[in-house]
Design brief:
With 180 residues, this protein is an alpha+beta fold. Helices cover 36% and strands 25% of the residues. It has 2 domains: 81 residues, 2-Layer Sandwich (Alpha-Beta Plaits), CATH 3.30.70.1280; 90 residues, Alpha-Beta Plaits (2-Layer Sandwich). It has a 4-stranded antiparallel beta sheet, sandwiched between helices.
Length: 180
């Protein structure tokens, strides 16, 4: 069995694309995934699967959601080992989870973006915001609040030309714990 973390993009936001986490857990179990655990309402799921190809898992989950709920949701998947690397690659040092976790975010990408698109994205980073792209993750420090920054998930997705979903550092750490 392989341990995975999947993140659904854009569910349960402003009353759109509603999926109850109990229903999502059941759907994953119907797909023959084991040890399924959901975390908060934004579509974070930790699970075990015999399938080793994350692209196949992504397609399987997206198709099942589309069939059951009649809407499409992008799914981004990482292995537990890849998730540990996200934690280890935190480029901003120690983060106080209680007081600062909403200032630090990770945008998970579906693929490694081109050097050209990364360079273009960096042109839009203004102080005090910080942005570092590392492989298939974008590490963000947004001290004045994510809602006030132009570096939104949609903006990053559009500039890099890949699917993306963003989680704050507290969620990243919690999902890491659930995957152990």
């Amino acid at each position: 069995m392989n341990k995975y973390i999947s993140m659904l993009r854009g569910i349960n936001v402003s009353g759109q694309k509603k999926i109850k986490m109990d229903d999502l857990r059941s759907l994953y179990e119907e797909l023959d995934f084991e040890n399924v655990v959901t975390y908060i309402q934004s579509g974070n799921v930790v699970f075990d699967s015999k399938i080793k190809n994350t692209a196949s898992l992504k397609l399987k989950i997206e198709a099942a959601i589309d069939e059951k709920y009649k809407f499409f949701v992008n799914v981004i998947i990482r292995t537990a080992d890849e998730w540990q690397k996200v934690i280890n690659n935190n480029l901003f040092g120690h983060i106080d989870l209680e007081n600062e976790s909403k200032k630090y975010l990770v945008t998970f990408l579906s693929a490694v973006p081109s050097a050209k698109s990364i360079s273009e994205l960096r042109q839009y980073v203004t102080k005090p915001d910080k942005l570092v792209v590392h492989n298939k993750e974008v590490y963000l420090y947004i001290p004045n609040g994510y809602g006030k920054s132009k570096l939104s998930n949609t903006f990053i997705e559009r500039k890099l030309g890949v699917e993306a979903t963003t989680r704050n550092w507290k969620t990243v750490v919690k999902l890491y714990g659930l995957s152990r």
